[in-house]
Amino acid sequence: MSGISLDGVTKRYPGGILAVKGVDIDIESGEFVTLVGPSGCGKTTTLRTIAGFETPTEGSIRIDGEEITEMPPYERDTGMVFQDFALFPHMSIRENVAYGMKASGEYTDEEIDARVAEMLELVELPGTENRMPDQLSGGQQQRIALARALAPRPKALLLDEPLASLDKQLREQMQVELRRIQREIGITTVFVTHN
Ligand code: ADP
Ligand code: MG
């Protein structure tokens, strides 16, 4: 597994908005770290610089000690679950979970099928391969988004308010689930929330 270090990370968007200023964080391999702060404080931007969807204006980012500040997202091996956890609506659960592995071109169909089944077990939705996203509840779709992020065995899991759209009871249940899953696979995790 992998540690993540941010060293003096600053992000200024075009137009001059200072979204993130001089962030230093050292996250150890296997650690679960939560970034908490009000809306607009730069949480999503920070996660996006770790995932590689944004390049910092200043500072550097390392995963496993390797400098990755300028590396494109697909080479970084991070798995991200977005705020709205949007699944691909026209794809089955199998296709959704398999997406990252298919895109990498590194796996056979047998490996993908086995991994999809394993991930669906992990999120406690076994046997849902052939369903479509709109046939699952919000909480179930959220678990599938997590399975999709984890399927390609990322070095780190980045979660951007993944529980925000769930009602309170489901959110609390999913917090416990998320912690169980994170412990079970020991993946370095950065969780962002305003709550
Ligand atoms: P959070 O996730 O904590 O709500 P964000 O990282 O989304 O915060 O945003 C931090 C600041 O950067 C906000 O002022 C926001 O309006 C601004 N911002 C975010 N994304 C962009 C963008 N693509 N272009 C310009 N400004 C942005
Ligand atoms: Mg945000």
Question: Describe the biggest sheet?
Answer: 4 strands, antiparallel
Mean pLDDT: 93
Please give the oligomerization state of what you see. Answer: single chain
Return residue spans where pLDDT drops below 50 for at least 5 consecutive residues.
Answer: none
Q: Could you tell me the strand content as a percent range?
A: 15-25%
Q: Which class do the helix and strand fractions yield? A: alpha/beta
Which overall shape is indicated by the principal axes computed on the Cα atoms? globular
Quickly count the helices.
Answer: 5
**Secondary structure: number of strands:** 8
Ligands bound, unique: adenosine-5'-diphosphate, magnesium ion
Distance between the ends: 28 Å
Topology as a string of helices (H) and strands (E): EEEHEEEHHHEHE
Helical content stands at 25-40%
Strand order of the largest sheet: 2-1-4-5
User: What is the gyration radius calculated from CA atoms?
Assistant: 17 Å
What does this protein look like?
The chain has helices at 43-51, 93-104, 109-122, 138-150, 168-185; strands spanning 4-12, 18-27, 32-36, 58-63, 66-67, 78-81, 156-160, 188-193. It has 195 residues and is α/β, with parallel strands linked by helices. The strands form two sheets. Strands 2-1-4-5 form a four-stranded antiparallel sheet, covered by helices on one side. Strands 3-8-7-6 form a four-stranded parallel sheet, sandwiched between helices. A hairpin with a 2-residue loop joins β4 and β5. α2 packs across α3 and α2 packs parallel to α4. Bound molecules: adenosine-5'-diphosphate (ADP) and magnesium ion (MG). The site of magnesium ion (MG) has 4 residues, from α1. Adenosine-5'-diphosphate binds at residues 13, 17, 19, 37, 39-45.
